[in-house]
Write a structure and sequence with these properties.
This protein is of the alpha+beta class. It folds into two domains: 2-81, Glutaredoxin, CATH 3.40.30.10; 88-193, Glutathione S-transferase Yfyf (Class Pi), Chain A, domain 2 (Up-down Bundle), CATH 1.20.1050.10. It has nine helices and four strands.
């Protein structure tokens, strides 16, 4: 497998965690979203992913983009360890939390939107994340065990950790979100979350390395 990734991309991080949890080795091709006006806009990368976004994964003779589509494929083809619970209610909760982050928070504060916000980008990102986290905190109070849904790591957790990192980068006050904070801290102690961390990628700048 070949993963097209950017060290700081929260979407690419989700996929890196899934690959690590499932023990899938891969070659990493860095796509720098800032350098050269954004390497994702090159003709070469557009041929890989017409949406000009990371991640993209070449695997089993196909090329997939969109982090959740990639994770679902990995789940379908390499089911161990499981990232979606067998219980239909818990499975629905996992998908709900993942969608909450992937559709309701992250796209509103990603690079392409922030570029358009100009000087207000920090305030905009903080507001988008805070309103999403208020809802997420409430949901997690009903679903969480050690992790987002019960005591098994799931696709929801793969979405939560990178989003908390975004929140910290945009200096969001995490005080009002004790459940999110607790789960994030627990997850960051797991090896798959450590090795996939933005501070430990081949394309991480020297000053940001762990």
């Amino acid at each position: 497998p070949i993963l097209y990734s950017y060290f700081r991309s929260s979407c690419a991080w989700r996929v890196r965690i899934a690959l690590a949890l499932k023990g899938i080795s891969y070659d990493l091709v860095p796509v720098n979203l800032l350098k050269d006006g954004g390497q994702q806009f090159s003709a070469e990368f557009k041929a890989v992913n017409p949406m000009q976004q990371v991640p993209a994964l070449k695997i089993d003779g196909i090329t997939l983009s969109q982090s959740l589509a990639i994770i679902h494929y990995l789940e379908d083809t390499r089911p161990n360890p499981r990232l979606l619970p067998q219980d239909p209610k818990k499975r629905a909760q996992v998908r709900m939390i993942a969608d909450h982050v992937v559709s309701g928070i992250q796209p509103l504060q990603n690079l392409s939107i922030l570029k358009q916000m100009g000087e207000k980008k920090m305030e905009w990102a903080q507001n988008c994340i805070a309103s999403g986290f208020q809802a997420l905190e409430q949901i997690l109070q009903h679903t969480a065990g050690h992790y987002c849904v019960g005591d098994e790591v799931s696709m929801a957790d793969l979405c939560l950790v990178p989003q908390v990192a975004n929140a910290e980068r945009f200096k969001v006050d995490m005080g009002p979100y004790p459940t999110i904070t607790r789960i994030n801290k627990t997850l960051l102690e797991l090896e798959a979350f450590k090795v996939s961390h933005p501070s430990r990628q081949p394309d991480t700048p020297a000053e940001l390395r762990a």
